[in-house]
Amino acid sequence: MKLKTLIKKNKIAAKLAYGFREKRNARRISKYQKLPIDSNKVLLYRADGGYGDNPRAIADYLRKNRPELQLVWACGGKQYFSSVPSGLKTVVFESEEYFKELATAGAWVCSSTLPYGTKKRDGQLYVQTWHGDKFLKKIANDAVADVEAYKKGMASRKFCEPKLCDYFLTGCEWFVPIAASAFGYKGAFLRHGMPRNDCLAELDPEKCAQIRKNLEIDPDVKVLIYAPTFRDYENSRDAVSTNIDLAKILEVLEEKYGQKWICLLRAHDGKALTINHEEVRDVRFRDVTTYPDMADLLMISDMLISDYSSCGADFAITGKMVLMYQDDFKQYTTKGRTLYFSQQESPYFTAYNMEEAVEIIRRVTEDEIKENAKKILDFYDSFESGRASEEVSKVILDALDRLK
């Protein structure tokens, strides 16, 4: 078990670790706050994985429309640097170079909370995008009562966002009270959608074709993506195990649609995915866990199967089929996390075993699929505009202009 996991499971160790981290961060940031703020610099941070998620969508817009800006990409390790486009500076999160860039950038864009001890200067802008807004499972402080190990680790954790954040992004009204309960944030919101979802609101055929080509997927092949989330109650987040029979599901889909199907396997944020069926070793299955951006994969998919992940609501924007497969529902909601709502009262197509999954796939019509996708978005009071990257970038650029 990793040292970080052990520390989180011990309340005293977690308290000491968070206290040390807070003082260290405050000291290192203060050292560089003597330098001038650069009104031409934006720091973007993604905790796990490579160049992706909401910060990527914003960075892509800024690269295209304001190429003179200096964009700095911070991520969890050097192993992710290769996914970052040339022209962006890369730094490792909480490295000495990271603190220098943080202290001098005119704007910050982050998809994960920043550690306590982070200090922001007058004039700097902090936009928190988070990595989802239409959840099933509880997050942050809302999840503390659910998971004992999580509770111990969170007991000493504080969020700097209520004090430092200028805006949280959201693509649905449902998220607003969640931000308050989960993070203690009661500030301003930018209600234009999740930037990473802009590409799902209006699919670009040429971009989809290029992604499929890069992944060596034939144009006439249908794509199922299986993307479960992690399990808190397992020894680590390094693997997700499931008994779903994806080979059987592909068989049912091919029978229903009269076309060839393949399945993309996507574990949560670069972790591993263990499937307990030998059939997935055949050529119809592609492990895309290390692919940098989930949005690309959703763009080219014709159906999504997940479990408790917010990617289901994201995919509903396309109007295509979303199926939640929850064969460990009791275990997940008693040993892991409870949900924000009763699954039975939600609009999701939900299966608790293979028989139910097969029955749902065979039964639903295309009209029912489209109507269900709309119901999912309505359930969250979604207002994805397809222009979130543009609208957020305007706010960032206005803030940078005020620094000049």
Feature tags:
single chain; 404 residues; alpha/beta; Rossmann fold; 2 domains; 6-stranded parallel sheet; 17 helices; 15 strands
Structure description:
The chain is α/β, with parallel strands linked by helices and 404 residues long. It has 2 domains: 3-198 and 386-403, CDP-glycerol glycerophosphotransferase, N-terminal domain (Rossmann fold, 3-Layer(aba) Sandwich); 204-379, CDP-glycerol glycerophosphotransferase, C-terminal domain (Rossmann fold), CATH 3.40.50.12580. Helix content is 40%, strand content 17%. The chain has helices at 3-8, 11-32, 53-65, 96-104, 140-143, 148-154, 161-164, 175-183, 198-201, 205-214, 246-257, 294-299, 311-316, 329-336, 354-363, 366-379, 388-403, and strands spanning 38-46, 70-75, 89-92, 105-110, 125-128, 167-170, 188-191, 222-226, 239-242, 261-265, 272-275, 285-287, 303-306, 321-325, 349-351. Strands 3-2-1-4-5-6-7 form a 7-stranded parallel sheet, with helices on both faces. α13 links the parallel β13 and β14. α2 (11-32) crosses α4 and α11 runs parallel beside α15.
CATH superfamily of the largest domain: CDP-glycerol glycerophosphotransferase, N-terminal domain
Tally of domains: 2
Low-confidence stretches: none
Main sheet: strand order: 3-2-1-4-5-6-7
- Mean pLDDT, as a whole number? 89
Biggest β-sheet strands, sense, barrel: 7 strands, parallel
- Overall number of strands: 15
Given helix and strand content, the structural type is: alpha/beta
CATH architecture descriptor of the largest domain = 3-Layer(aba) Sandwich
Beta-strand portion reads 15-25%
Tell me the distance between the termini: 49 Å
Number of helices: 17
- Highest CATH level, the class of the largest domain: Alpha Beta
**What is the C-alpha radius of gyration, as a whole number of Å?**
21 Å
Measured as a percent range, the helix fraction is: 25-40%
- At the fold tier of CATH, the topology name of the largest domain is Rossmann fold
